[in-house]
Amino acid sequence: MSIATVYSRALTGIYAQAVTVEVHLSNGLPSLSIVGMAETAVKESKDRVRSALINSQFTFPQQRITINLAPADLPKEGGRFDLPIALGILAASNQIPVQSLSNMEFIGELGLTGELRAVRGVLPTALATSEANRQLMVPFENAEEAALTEQGESFAAKTLLEVCAHLHDQLRLSPNLNKQQQSQNNYADLADVRGQASARRALEIAAAGSHSLLFAGPPGTGKTMLASRLPGILPPMSELEAIETATIHSISSAGFQVENWMQRPFRAPHHTTSAVALVGGGSQPKPGEISLANNGVLFLDELPEYDRKVLEVLREPIESGKITISRAANQAEFPSQFQLVAAMNPCPCGYLGQARCHCTEEQVRRYRGKISGPLLDRIDMLMEVPAVDKKLLRPQPDDVPPESSEKVRQRVIQARQIQLDRANKANASLQHKELEVFCTLSDQDFQLVEKAISRFGLSARAYHRILKVARTIADLAGSPDIQTVHLTEAIGYRRLDTAN
To answer: For residue 83, which phi and psi values (nearest 5 degrees)?
Structure first.
């Protein structure tokens, strides 16, 4: 047969689109052409495939070879099509049986010796292949990632020869076994934090209700330390969340590390990060930091040092939980259900109110003005972190050890379960109509909120966030209704608004 068809997948956002690799051999001067909107790395595959076939002791056809990657209007990139192209040439030249290709899909980059090299985006490819009721062949280095999904069947090979032996039934490869394991607690422990009872309390509330949080305080008070402990007190990931998070990391430039399975991500980009790096972009859109932090924590340290235009791009994703990247050629949508934690100093030098601080009022105002009001308005909790008492730096024999992350986590899980039973979502995601139902206030408490709005100059959005935080505090206390004490504490987390 002079024509063969091989099935593969191309990445579009977080999805793996079906690609049909058609190979046709015809008489004429020996040549090889690839059509079907293939970018440079794909077109270069003809040289890799030629060398891989020859070095694997196969015959490279001395004919006119035409390779079509369909659909023609779908962009293809990377070396993932090397293996299906090589198999298509072998099948078209009757060196492997064509029938063996019908129920399988193939991805993998070929070395010049015929070895298979790892590619990115294996997990979304495995999920899409299982939905199509086909088996998947991947490089050996991608075997663990392909086995993360229980659906479908996948195989892994180290060389092109092993793939061909499998197709010839000469050497049957064993299916990749699903080795999903529950997440091991490798998070930093909250017990390492000494003092800062108020900040620990704010962190627990933020974890229970999935609220965004801003720490403000002088250097060395433990702001970064507290933020890095947040993933350890969050509820365990569901399998759906784990797959979604792993899929995003799988298509990123760094790829997905299997040891991070069921681990909530903690992303802490540097303040010199660009807007594109934060939200994602490129001619073929790739996920940015906010998508890589999906179902986890995005930590922005030294918040005022970020470019203001960079920070403004966060406003919409915080509200919607997704980001749409549009380019002239295509468009991609990535989930961004991240929990924002930020940290900042009170002034440029960081020591406002202390003798060593020489910052003028104008300098302080300009420094804090780098963070826009609309962005602050979208942060649920604003927490001042004071300097640590020197007595706490030296541990005493009779000291009571601080609460561990595991103890705090159990309270967070209980509170989160109350929220899921009530509205099937965390309190931070409650809509306006749901607030009217689940966050009812007495006349006295409503007057209290009105006074706070007038005194602090709060917006309607800030009012709704106070209600959400108060609802979370009530859930932690096991109270079915919001009490005055819960509302008062929630209002206290907006006091920094007056300073900005």
So the answer is: -65, -50
| Neighbour count for residue 488 (Cβ, 10 Å) | 14
- pTM of the model as a whole: 0.89
Query: Can you state the angle between helices 405-423 and 460-476, rounded to 10 degrees?
Result: 110
* Antiparallel, parallel or unpaired: β 381-384 and 213-216: parallel
Nearest by Cα to 408 from 236, 207, 215? 207
Q: What is the mean pLDDT of each run of 10 residues along the chain (500 residues)?
A: 91 91 93 91 92 95 94 90 96 93 95 95 94 94 89 91 92 76 69 87 96 93 93 92 93 87 93 91 86 96 92 89 81 91 92 86 90 89 85 66 89 96 93 90 90 86 93 95 94 71
In this structure, the answer to whether residues 70 and 205 fall within a common structural domain is no
Decide: 464 and 435 in contact? Cβ < 8 Å.
Answer: yes
In a domain, 202, yes or no: yes
Q: Supply 322's token pair.
A: 């997704």
What's the CA dihedral at 408, 188, 338, 251 to 10 degrees? Answer: -140
CA atoms of 239 and 180, how far apart (whole Å): 10
Q: Tell me if 175 is assigned to some domain.
A: no
**Residue 179 falls within a domain, yes or no?**
no
399 phi, psi to nearest 5 deg: -65, 140
CATH number at residue 17: 3.30.230.10
Residues 163 and 205 in one domain: no
Q: Which helix (H) or strand (E) covers residue 369, if one does?
A: none
